[in-house]
Amino acid sequence: KMEEFLNLTQLKTSLKEAILLDYFTAGFWWAKEMNFSLIQLSGFMDLLNFALENLSSKHMTLGDNLKELERAMSAIGETESEEGSDLNLFSIEQAKAIIDYLVTSLFEHYKAYEYLFHSRREEPVISNE
């Protein structure tokens, strides 16, 4: 189902698509184990996508991406939410767990993800030989 949702069409031959499927599937199951509500699960998946998009599309450095995460997460726990912010639906404890998860799943492997998105790789040549 995740493969269809993410519109991954070359999963069997694309390392990038396989890694993206693993990233989002692992995040989904982690959030389910945390007993997030459906709205929280959606917000968490948006946050995973936000951090990955910062790296892949915006070419943000690790430091800049961490600053963006801090900015996005700073509204959590406040009584008045900023306009359009869905992240205040997490408790402080959940927010800390989310940050820990992002650190271990994405930020500790940032160089590998940068390589995945930004380095040119030659296509392997496969023949009958």
Helix and strand run? HHHHHH
Query: What share of the residues lie within helices?
Result: 55-70%
Largest sheet: none
Number of domains: 1
What's the SSE blueprint?
Blueprint: H1 2-5, H2 15-33, H3 38-56, H4 62-73, H5 92-105, H6 110-118
Helix pairs in contact: 2-3, 3-4
Please tell me about this protein's structure.
With 129 residues, this protein is mostly helical. It has one domain. The protein is 60% helix and 0% strand. Helix 2 packs antiparallel against helix 3 and helix 3 runs antiparallel to helix 4. The chain is globular, with a radius of gyration of 17 Å.
Give descriptors for this structure.
129 residues; mainly alpha; 6 helices; globular; CBCO1 protein; CLAMP
Quick structural gist:
This protein is mostly helical.
